[in-house]
Design brief:
- The complex is a heterodimer of chains A (343) and B (365).
- By secondary structure, chain A is mainly alpha-helical.
- Chain A folds into 2 domains: 194 residues, no CATH class; 77 residues, no CATH class.
- In chain A, 61% of the residues lie in helices and 2% in strands.
- In chain A, helix 4 runs antiparallel to helix 7.
- The two termini of chain A are 49 Å apart.
- Chain B has a domain of 179 residues.
- Chain B is 61% helix and 2% strand.
- Chain B has a two-stranded antiparallel sheet with strand order 1-2.
- In chain B, helix 1 packs antiparallel against helix 7 and helix 3 runs antiparallel to helix 7.
- Classes of the chains: A mainly alpha (343), B mainly alpha (365).
- Chains A and B meet through helix 5 of A and helix 5 of B.
- Chain A: Belongs to the PRPH2/ROM1 family.
Chain lengths: 343, 365
């Protein structure tokens, strides 16, 4: 008993083939879309690879690019087969490989679903990469004279301005590192000597932040230095002042940016998966309807199309039997060869 | 005849088909011009707060109008093309085509004027920006005054986005009080000194807002005491060039908008070319088809031309026609006014003609 059988006459078969051909062209466009999304994501990661310590994993965008290319090719092939299915002579040459093609399509659809799932899960490793990268970035902020790190200051400043964030978790992260280079510190001044001797590592720590942390929406000119000292500025209370600098940490800001991007890509990949499943089902019906013609010589005869030739349970047991037979066959051959060598 | 060409039936058909395609291309070009106008207008509106007047808006407005008119005009051309090979349907377009040529020529002239205007209005744009930015810098501190409370945010975002500082350069900030009096401690000596140091009693300082800071500078940004070399370690005011943005915002914005309009220049010029070629081809098609319908054998050869007579003669013809229409309009109202007194007018006219006739024979004799 076949699964979901449908009766087909010539007219219905032609209509089915045309619809599936049309859907295959949409699927090719969908494959191009997946490819372009993978490229876009890769470029975005590259743009900020400095902030991720050049350590970010390009696995997901590479996978998306690969899946996009494969989707384009198999959908183009499927479209060609559909186009030929209306002509019995042309279709005959494709008949043999159609079964393996359909199995391959099912596997590909499963892989697409896994890709979509990965898109949603990639947030977690990204969180750690960003935390590490930003911490190092802030450490190298002052090293504008060290080759290889001289652009870190500019990168961090531009990023804090663009994403409206300050520091790793919040602005206090800047209080814990020395972000003013020694070249600009007057070591003969008492204040500088005091600050350096106030901590174990001899670093010039200050309760100030770089200018890129400033919030333009603040009603008063930005207070960057001596932020925790209420008496240093007129009418200032650092506990209640919340518009002065950006409150959000850059890790959160970047994570929500990339997270949003990945969620969108994941949702689109799920839609593409549904389209692919649709065309696979359509192709299965085309294949089964053309291989079960009541009168093989007459192309205008009636036929039946199905999703699976037998029920799900029977198909499953068939596959298991086939695999067992293949396993036993190889064992028997080995046994015979062993016997032959022994005797 | 000016620039006449022979057309066989085959060539006429080809011309009609080619022109149909080119007219659809011209429709797309019209849509492109419209979108260009919309884009330019939104970009100008985004920064409307730092512009004093809206004179420069004439450029995108003309572009939008011309775009819409060009879509309609070229769509009409496609309809004419479709009917041109059908002898029964073509004659109804006869009058409309004259109007069409005038409109198409007008559109081309408007597009050329847009290109000219975008260069000519540069000075006006600079003036408008100068006044707008000066006001913006003056009202920077008024974050508690309704209507001006967003000036600070606007100017800060502008300076950061366009990488500029002040109107002409960063020294413009030295001449304005940009710190609100709400945040000034009037009991402190420094504040009192600064306020007394100028006539208007303003708190002026040699400092700039944080948005002037250049991220590419190797050292953390120095915003205050900029002219005082001793206030910062290893600092020389004259030679420090990466600390702040060196460009003025007026220059930055003018450059931005000029670049925008210049980059649209080639597009507009190519649209003008396409429109002109549609005009010329339609003229040839019209004359060729009309000549063919006048022949005994409509499928035979006919001649197409741009102008029936030479340029000078056509110009004089047109002038005469226009004067006729004007005279006709002038004579008509005057004739209807004088009709009650027409008899009186005729009598003196007769007398004058008699008088004119009588003296003439006497000198002769």
């Amino acid at each position: 008993m076949a699964l979901l059988p449908v009766k087909f006459d010539l007219k219905k078969r032609v209509k089915l083939a045309q619809t599936v051909w049309f859907m295959y062209w949409f699927a090719v466009l969908a494959g191009v879309l997946v490819l372009s999304m993978g490229l876009f994501f890769k470029i975005e990661l590259r743009k900020r690879s400095e902030l991720m310590d050049n350590n970010e994993s390009h696995f997901l965008p590479n996978l998306l690019i690969f899946m996009g290319l494969v989707a384009c090719s198999i959908n183009a092939f499927g479209g060609k087969v559909c186009y030929d299915s209306l002509d019995p002579e042309k279709f005959a040459k494709w008949k043999a490989i159609l079964k393996t093609y359909l199995v391959f399509c099912v596997g590909f659809n499963a892989l697409l679903l896994v890709t979509a799932l990965l898109c949603f899960l990639m947030r977690i490793p990204m969180q750690f990469t960003l935390a590490e990268g930003l911490r190092n970035g802030m450490k190298y902020y002052k090293d504008t004279d060290t080759p290889g790190r001289c652009y870190m200051k500019r990168t961090l400043d531009l990023m804090q301005i663009e994403f409206r964030c300050c520091g790793n978790d919040n602005y206090r992260d800047w209080f814990e590192i020395q972000w003013v280079s020694n070249r600009y510190l007057d070591f003969s001044a008492k204040e500088v000597r005091d600050r350096i001797s106030s901590n174990v590592d001899g670093q010039y720590l200050m309760d100030g932040v770089p200018f890129s942390c400033c919030n333009p929406s603040s009603p008063r000119p930005c207070i960057q230095a001596q932020m925790t000292n209420n008496s240093a500025h007129y009418s200032y209370d650092h506990y209640t002042e919340d518009l002065n600098v950006w409150k959000r940490g850059c890790r959160d800001a970047l994570l929500s940016y990339y997270g949003g991007m990945m969620n969108t890509i994941g949702a689109l990949v799920i839609l593409v998966t549904m389209l692919e499943v649709g065309v696979t089902v359509g192709m299965q019906y085309v294949h089964s309807s053309l291989s079960s013609l009541a009168n093989p010589e007459d192309p205008e005869s009636e036929s039946e199309g199905w999703l699976l030739e037998k029920t799900v349970k029977e198909t499953f047991t068939d596959i298991m039997d086939k695999m067992k037979a293949m396993g036993k066959g190889s064992k028997v051959e080995e046994g015979e060869a062993a016997v032959a060598t022994v005797s | 005849m000016l620039l006449k060409m022979k057309f066989t039936q085959q060539r006429r058909v080809r011309l009609a088909q080619g022109l149909w395609l080119m007219s659809w291309l011209a429709v797309m070009c019209g849509a492109f011009i419209f979108c260009l106008g919309v884009y330019l207008k939104t970009e100008l509106l985004r920064r409307a707060e730092v512009m004093d007047n809206t004179e420069i808006h004439v450029v995108p407005n003309i572009l939008m109008m011309v775009g819409l008119a060009s879509i309609g005009t070229n769509w009409v051309a496609t309809r004419v093309c479709q009917d041109s090979l059908d002898a029964s349907r073509f004659p109804r377009w006869k009058v409309l085509l004259l109007v069409w040529f005038a409109v198409a020529a007008l559109l081309c002239c408007l597009l050329i004027s847009v290109v000219v205007l975008s260069y000519a209005l540069q000075g006006r744009l600079e003036e408008s920006l100068k006044v707008g930015l000066r006001n913006g810098i003056r009202f920077y501190k008024d974050t508690d005054v309704p209507g001006r409370c967003f000036q600070k945010e606007t100017i800060d975002h502008l300076q950061m986005e366009f990488r500029c500082c002040g109107n002409n350069n960063f020294k413009d900030w030295f001449e304005v009080q940009w710190v609100s009096t709400r945040y000034l401690d009037f009991t402190s000596k420094d504040v009192k000194d600064r306020i007394r140091s100028n006539v208007d009693g303003r708190y002026l300082l040699d400092g700039v807002p944080f948005s002037c800071c250049n991220p590419a500078s190797p050292r953390p940004c120095l915003q205050y005491h900029l002219t005082d070399n001793n206030a910062h370690y290893n600092y020389d005011y004259q030679s420090e060039e990466l600390n702040l943005y060196s460009r003025g915002c007026r220059q930055a914005l003018t450059d931005y908008y000029m670049e925008l309009m210049n980059s649209t220049g080639p597009g507009v010029l190519s649209v003008i070319l396409i429109q002109m070629s549609v005009l010329v081809s339609l003229r040839y098609l019209q004359t060729a088809v009309e000549a063919a319908t006048a022949l005994e054998n409509p499928e035979g050869e006919s001649e197409g031309y741009l102008l029936e007579k030479g340029v000078k003669e056509t110009f004089q013809d047109v002038k005469a026609k226009v004067l006729d229409i004007v005279k006709f309009a002038q004579v008509d109202p005057s004739a209807t006014e004088e009709s009650p007194g027409a008899a009186d007018a005729v009598k003196p006219a007769d007398n004058t003609t008699e008088k004119a006739v009588s003296p003439t024979p006497s000198p002769a004799s």
